[in-house]
TrEMBL record, chains A, B, C, D:
Record's keyword terms, sorted: Hydrolase
Organism classification: Bacteria, Bacillati, Actinomycetota, Actinomycetes, Micrococcales
Domain of life: Bacteria
GO biological process entries: nucleoside triphosphate catabolic process
InterPro entries per record: dCTP_Pyrophosphatase (IPR052555), DCTPP (IPR025984)
Record's protein name: NTP pyrophosphatase (Non-canonical NTP hydrolase)
GO MF term set: nucleoside triphosphate diphosphatase activity
Organism (species): Nesterenkonia xinjiangensis
Length: 108, 108, 108, 108
């Protein structure tokens, strides 16, 4: 069974072998995340259907890869980032106000 | 120590309490990833410097959160998506051709 | 000399010949703008230099095309949208406070 | 009646008064287009309906504004960019193959 630490270890090795750390500034990684998220969105450009599930997974993998590299560059643990933010989001969207509604918190 | 399975379990619970699964189609999650990646990029809009590291981490957390939710919706394991894609990327960027260069594979 | 009305007239004809208006919901056009803006950003993924000016112009043309189609779909005049928004932005960024600074209005 | 040259002239004046040209590198403008296109997409995050038409127009205005500034920075005429690209797209999507279909050109 794989976990994030394994994935990060492989990614670090992949980057080091190619001497690519020099290109991986936080800014360049943030641009890369935006670029890859556009490619993911392209899977749904003209229809909401998941036509090609394999392609969706492949594009999602690219977004995730750059997210892990950025977290690593910032010295942050990806799971902890998610869990910390979730604590904050819970308070912005209390269950009794947010249930069954997609309204943004500032209009709840 | 937290791991992705813990984060996903908390996220699933958060979504279920709010009855939000109805909004989380793959298409809507892909849009959400693109939207949040724009907010992450905004941290670097006018400068490549990481001015506000806390804000960068907070925006990255949002992108990661929607990535985990989309992987979960597709029945995929996030770490395995990353590792599978890495196998593919290794063959597109052989070490001897790609070392120290940011050139795209189709122009290597 | 060309103007926006000429460009829109050609675009409308292009779309009509191909019976593509059915795909051009505001939502799909907004997704398309985000997708193409990712391709534009890819020109600057690893460097701030404008390496390939022709490619930058070609990707910018794609973003602009979908912007014109969306304005048309909304019954709005693109130049007037820009000028109206500029009136608003002037008040958010008074010259004496904003001069020479890239700070966002809510922190000026 | 306004046209693009009027809008550009006002934009140039707005930028000059604030001494903002120093921030408007092609790269920063490309990032800005991606950021604003994310805000436009947010109008359709959870639904394909155009709920708030005024907000959609306001976000579209932001994308358009940065597109005009980038075209100007590159010394290009926005309408001509659109018309030149359209010539190219016509050949990629011949009417008889593309009619009524949203298929990408490389799979037509």
């Amino acid at each position: 069974m794989s976990n994030v630490e394994d994935a990060l270890s492989e990614l670090r090795n992949f980057v080091q072998e190619r001497e690519w750390a020099q290109f991986h500034s936080p800014e360049n990684l943030a641009k890369s995340i935006a670029i890859e998220s556009g490619e993911l969105l392209e899977c749904f450009q003209w229809s909401g259907e998941t036509g090609d599930a394999e392609r969706v997974q492949s594009e999602l993998a690219d977004v995730l890869t750059y997210c892990l590299l950025l977290a690593d560059r910032l010295g942050a643990n990806p799971e902890e980032l998610v869990l910390q933010k979730l604590q904050h989001t819970r308070t912005k969207y209390p269950v009794d106000k947010a249930r069954g509604r997609s309204t943004k918190y500032d209009r709840l």
